[in-house]
Each structure stands twice: as structure tokens, then as C-alpha cells.
């Protein structure tokens, strides 16, 4: 199932061969920088590039002996490159290669996620305008509150997802950072010019200061931003699950021809996509905690973060790519039941208009305490089944003393609650409020 919704581009970002290709590109660019600095003969990097090939099987074979993947790559290159191999990895440490390449991969993955967020926003906006005036009951604590519109709900989701877009753009600039500062980060065996050259060629900025690794608060921010986006997707999916409940049934996941909901009960139409998204959000959220645990490393670094990141970074980005595709498809094809929304709006016999009645009484000069008690007294009778609220309050001496029947009737018009929607929509969808898409630099060209 994930294969159908995960784009090949995202899989390719985390392909093992792709990782080694970026490692090689970092080494080749460093070699070119050494040439510029007069530390390697001119043309060395070009000669190595012509001969060097990534042989995943051979690297794995060597790693069985070395127990070190970067050394395994370098030894595999030595077998095919020849004497020029000595100009690779000069004054560098493994983390120079691994962290810089990881920044390229994380940036490429995030660019795909940003595209997915932008696509999701487009669907939310379209649905928000489509259902702008579709009245439904609002709920707090799961209990009927005052009327809203289904489009209003979509506008709320749009604004929230828009914040994620901005947050992810900020995180992109924080993670697109490389380092080639050597074993302890002090550039002991080559100058900062090497790092600055390599990073610029990879579309990265250089880390102003690092020890043996790029500091992991950057990676934690990245994983946390993904977890926050996953939480919002879970929020949307949870809402759809509630709206699809048999007792509510105001909205429903699209149920395709031939689809089955249960192996035993032929009538079932379950919110399986929404439930799937809620479950996957837990994985992305859990991964963000693991990323935070990686921030504290011993001294200038240890290697406890490495095994974690080899799992959580591919997993979180692939999952997020999948979740965005699924939730976009879910909202795009969501089935809405206006008649059911109207029926549920009227389910409480007008109780949802209690606040407007209260305020109408106050506007007529009644005291708030007495007005509240009068409306509540009749509301409690309506709860017991004594009649509709409009009918009951029309007979109440205190209320009828202040409000004519026509004034009471006006309080029970649901469209009153949507009168400021145009202004709300301008605040949400004004294009000048949303920043233009970030200009994205390309990663390593391999």
C-alpha cells in the first residue's frame, strides 16, 4: 500500500547506492578544492571521477572486514582509481563525508515533502470554498455547540497546514548545512576554504562551527517539524473518523466500487485511511523523540546517533511523503452529506441558539444573571423532551417580557453565525499573507 502512494523520487533519495554516490561526490569536490589550494595536482579530481564507480556489493564485502562503511568505500575506490586515490579524504574524517551527504539527502527529501504540503494546501483551499456556506453544527467536548460551516472547518485546517509549510521552510535552511572541518572540527589539516567550496557546490551552507559532527539540534528540529505536520494530519483524520460514525455520518471516506469493509459484515464502510494516518503519525512522532535523544553526544561526538538516524530519517520522510499523498487524496474525495448536517443541526431542538437568546435579552436591558438562568431553565426542559427551545422560551414570562416572538424567531437562524465568513476567508486566504515558495537549490549532482 505504501508503495502505491510513495513517489519513486523519495525512495531514490534514500537508496544505498545514492548515499554512496553523494559520499563520492563530497570526496571529489574536496579533491577539487585541494587542487584549487595547490594541495593536489591539477586534473586529479577529473581523473578520479572518470575512473570511480560505486559498487555496492564490493563495498559491503570490504565492510565485513573493516567494520567501517566510509573506509570500505575508500578501499573500493582505491581498487579502481589507482595512484590518484591518495588525494581522496586528505585531512578529513568520516563525519565530514557522512554528515554533509546526509544534509543533501535530508534537503532533497524535504523538498519533496514541501511539494506535498503545497499540493495538500491547494486541495484544502478548494474544499474550503466549495463548502464555505454549508452549515453544520459545531461541537465542543463532543457536544453540540453553535453552527459553523464545513468550509470554515477546512479553512482552519488550511491555516494550520500553512504554518507547517512556513516551519518546514525554516527547517530546510537549518538542515542544509555541511561540514568538512576535520576530526575535532578545528580544520587542523586543511583550511575552511575547502569546506566552503564543497558546501557551495552541493547547494549547502557551511556550518559556522562544528566539532566532529554537525550538531544534532538541527536534525531534531527537522524530525520535530515532521512530527508536528504528522500531528495535524492525525487531527484531520481523527475529525473525519468522528464525522463518519454511524450516529453522525456528516462526512465519509470515499468508498470505491468493489471495496470491502469487513470480512464478516458486508454492510461495513470503515474510515480505514483515516485510521491508517492516525497510526502512522505515532511512528513519526516517536522518531522525533529519538532525534531529540541524539542531541546529547559525548564530548566532541560519539556514534550513538548514527544507528538511530539510519532508521528515523528515511522512515520519517518516506512516511510523511506517503501520509501527505493519502490525506490529500482523502480530503479531495471526501463525501459530504448536507442533509445529515441539517438533521444533526436540528437534533437538539434549537438548544444550540441559547447564547444568541442570552445576548438578545441583555441587549434589551435584562441583567445577565437572570437572563442566563431563564434561558438555561428552558434549555434544561428541552433536554428532557418538553419541547423545542423556541417554543418553550416564547412561553416564558421573563423572556417574553423582553423579547417579542419575532425577535425570538430571529435568534434561531443558523446563517447568522456565518455572517463574518467573508472576512475570515480574506484573513486566511489573502495571498499576500502566505510567503512565496522558497527557492530550492539542487543537491549533489552525481
Short description:
By secondary structure, the chain is mostly helical. It has 19 helices and six strands.
Structure description:
By secondary structure, this protein is mainly α. Among the domains are: 250 residues, Fumarase C, Chain A, domain 2 (Up-down Bundle); 61 residues, Fumarase/aspartase (C-terminal domain) (Ribonucleotide Reductase Protein R1, domain 1), CATH 1.10.40. Helix content is 62%, strand content 5%. It contains 19 helices and six strands. It has a two-stranded antiparallel ribbon with strand order 1-2. The protein has a two-stranded parallel ribbon with strand order 3-4. The chain has a two-stranded antiparallel sheet with strand order 5-6. β1 and β2 form a beta hairpin. α3 crosses α7, α5 packs across α6 and α7 runs parallel beside α12. The longest helix has 37 residues. The mean pLDDT is 92.
Provide key terms for this protein.
mainly alpha, two-stranded parallel ribbon, Fumarase C, Chain A, domain 2, 6 strands, two-stranded antiparallel ribbon, 62% helix, Ribonucleotide Reductase Protein R1, domain 1
State the share of residues found in helices, binned by percent.
55-70%
CATH class of the domain at 92-341: Mainly Alpha
Based on the structure given, which CATH architecture of the domain at 92-341 is correct?
A: Up-down Bundle
Main β-sheet, spatial strand arrangement: 1-2
Amino acid at each position: 500500500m505504501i508503495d502505491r502512494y510513495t513517489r519513486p523520487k523519495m525512495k531514490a533519495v534514500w537508496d544505498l547506492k545514492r548515499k554512496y554516490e553523494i559520499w563520492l561526490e563530497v570526496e571529489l569536490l574536496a579533491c577539487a578544492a585541494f587542487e584549487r589550494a595547490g594541495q593536489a595536482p591539477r586534473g586529479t579530481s577529473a581523473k578520479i571521477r572518470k575512473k570511480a564507480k560505486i559498487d555496492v556489493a564490493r563495498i559491503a564485502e570490504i565492510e565485513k572486514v573493516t567494520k567501517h562503511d566510509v573506509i570500505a568505500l575508500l578501499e573500493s575506490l582505491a581498487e579502481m582509481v589507482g595512484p590518484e586515490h591518495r588525494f581522496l579524504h586528505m585531512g578529513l574524517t568520516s563525519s565530514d563525508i557522512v554528515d554533509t551527504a546526509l544534509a543533501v539527502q535530508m534537503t532533497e527529501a524535504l523538498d519533496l515533502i514541501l511539494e506535498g504540503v503545497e499540493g495538500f494546501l491547494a486541495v484544502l483551499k478548494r474544499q474550503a470554498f466549495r463548502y464555505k456556506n454549508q452549515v453544520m453544527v459545531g461541537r465542543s467536548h463532543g457536544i453540540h455547540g453553535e453552527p459553523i460551516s464545513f468550509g470554515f472547518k477546512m479553512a482552519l485546517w488550511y491555516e494550520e497546514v500553512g504554518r507547517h509549510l512556513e516551519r518546514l521552510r525554516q527547517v530546510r535552511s537549518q538542515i542544509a548545512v555541511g561540514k568538512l572541518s576535520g576530526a575535532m572540527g578545528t580544520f587542523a589539516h586543511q583550511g575552511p576554504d575547502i569546506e566552503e567550496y564543497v558546501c557551495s557546490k552541493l547547494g549547502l551552507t557551511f556550518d559556522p562551527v562544528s566539532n566532529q559532527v554537525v550538531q544534532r539540534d538541527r536534525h531534531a528540529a527537522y524530525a520535530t517539524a515532521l512530527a508536528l505536520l504528522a500531528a495535524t494530519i492525525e487531527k484531520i483524520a481523527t475529525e473525519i473518523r468522528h464525522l463518519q460514525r454511524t450516529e453522525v455520518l456528516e462526512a465519509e471516506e470515499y468508498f470505491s466500487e468493489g471495496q470491502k469493509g469487513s470480512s464478516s459484515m458486508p454492510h461495513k464502510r470503515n474510515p480505514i485511511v483515516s485510521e491508517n494516518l492516525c497510526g502512522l503519525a505515532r511512528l513519526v512522532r516517536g522518531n522525533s523523540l529519538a532525534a531529540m535523544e541524539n542531541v546529547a553526544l559525548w564530548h566532541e561526538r560519539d556514534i550513538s546517533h548514527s544507528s538511530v538516524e539510519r532508521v528515523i530519517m528515511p522512515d520519517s520522510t518516506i512516511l510523511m511523503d506517503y501520509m501527505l499523498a493519502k490525506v490529500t487524496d482523502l480530503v479531495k474525495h471526501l463525501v459530504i452529506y448536507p442533509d445529515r448536517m441539517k438533521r444533526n443541526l436540528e437534533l437538539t431542538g434549537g438548544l444550540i441558539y441559547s447564547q444568541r437568546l442570552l445576548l438578545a435579552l441583555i441587549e434589551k436591558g435584562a441583567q445577565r444573571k437572570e437572563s442566563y438562568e431563564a434561558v438555561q431553565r428552558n434549555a434544561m426542559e428541552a433536554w428532557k423532551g418538553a419541547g423545542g427551545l423556541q417554543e418553550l422560551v416564547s412561553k416564558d414570562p421573563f423572556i417574553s417580557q423582553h423579547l417579542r416572538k419575532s425577535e425570538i424567531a430571529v435568534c434561531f437562524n443558523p446563517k447568522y453565525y456565518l455572517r463574518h465568513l467573508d472576512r475570515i476567508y480574506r484573513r486566511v486566504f489573502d495571498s499576500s499573507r502566505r510567503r512565496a515558495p522558497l527557492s530550492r537549490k539542487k543537491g549533489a549532482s552525481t
